[in-house]
Amino acid sequence: MQMMLEPTRATAEGLVVDPDWALDDCPRIFDPVPDRPQEFKPCHLRMHEHVLLPVLRTECKAFKLMHFFKLKDVTGGKQTLVSDYASVVAKWHECQGCIVNFRDSDLDAAMRGFYPEESWGHSPAGQAHRTEFCGFFDGAIEYHFLNSEDFLNARRRDHEALYAIEQRIFSSCWYVEVDENLVVLPNRNPAPAFYFR
Amino acid sequence: MLKVLGFVKRNSKLSHDEYRAGHVGYHNSFGRRLNHIRGYLLNVASNTPVINSLGKDLVHRLTRNEPEDFDNQWDGWGQLMFDTFEDYLAARSPARDFPGELGLQMDPMVGKLGDDLDELYAGTPFQFQVDEFISRPVVRPERKLFKLVQFGQRPVELPVELFRAYWTGRYASLASTMPGLRGLIINFRTPLDVMSKFFAADAEGFTPAGIERRQDFYSLWDGMAEYWFDSEENFVRARTSKPPPLYTLEQEAV
Fold this sequence. Notes:
Chain A has a domain at 45-178: Alpha-Beta Plaits, CATH 3.30.70. Chain A is 27% helix and 26% strand. Chain A has four helices and nine strands. Chain A has helices at 26-29, 74-89, 124-134, 148-169, and strands at 9-11, 14-16, 32-33, 36-40, 47-53, 63-71, 97-103, 139-145, 170-178. In chain A, the strands form three sheets. Chain A has a five-stranded antiparallel sheet, with helices on one face. A two-stranded antiparallel ribbon of chain A has the order 1-2. Chain A has a two-stranded antiparallel ribbon with strand order 3-4. Chain B contains ten helices and nine strands. In chain B, strands 2-3-1-6-8-9-7 form a seven-stranded antiparallel sheet. A two-stranded antiparallel ribbon of chain B has the order 4-5. Chains A and B meet through β1 of A and α1 and β4 of B.
């Protein structure tokens, strides 16, 4: 991967770029490429987000639900999601955050410049792998709740209205619960002039 | 839950901002991998003195008998949370979280926390356990918050139980109603020894000079309240718009 590291390791010579930093365990964590032992099968996708409800995090594990969808008509569907659908969801007082993410139509947008051009991700096999995966969905809504009951209560209340919209704009949609590990809390304000995570 | 704080003074070879990067970057990357850790925060002293962010008048009104040079004794403090004391002591053993050729393997560097303590700090951290009182559970938005910590020392004639009761009682109830408050936690330092089996026996903190340095620091305060606000303006507004009740209680406590 092509990355510039910041010096963050304190040594006898002061702060240096960590010489042991490698990020070379990817092929051992992720799906490896059989004929390329140093590589794995990446699938970085650029997403365009619409924050319906800014995320608020308490000091407890939250209930995070991803709602994947494929749109019948991409342009019209996006518009409906961020207007009609959003206006219902945005009133959910139990909801700790809701973000609609649309996948960029350029499937290489988050790969280009991040992985070397000669890497598997840019090969025909890598592109086919990404195209197949992206064919399943156009985006995903992320919901943050304190618990699943809160989601069910909110959804029950507005089910008819949301279901009607879903029938109209989605050719398919499904939910996945995820365990969010907050590695770096997003800071949506401008970055301060010092190292901050 | 066991909550342990470790106050550290940066190695003088590093500037304050270099210390930030070294602590938040390399060092914390190991700290977050400690076995069975349940919470890990690092508080770094702001580059902006409170007198600049809150204004001289308000700082003078809210401050009494601030120890001279207090801020020069530390640059930051980490907060470690574990379920039990046993988990805390066992945390610094190799972690089985490293994907190797044979699957998940042990990484001895985790137990050593990156092995950079001597280069990052000036001496052993002042590490102690606190009892916490959550007055307003912290809720974090996706942006950097303004965090302010109020240190307090118990008047010698006031029993420990009353000191805690006053701070966590009516005072905390009033403070927790400040508009814009995103969290309020009051912590009281306890005498539990959380250093002996955590740091090496030959660490600076166990030398006579190290013990004296730590005791001097502890003698300056007994409790600390953590406040989270969206901005310093919110805190200033909260403390100046309706000043009498909290201020009156602070005066009574002297």
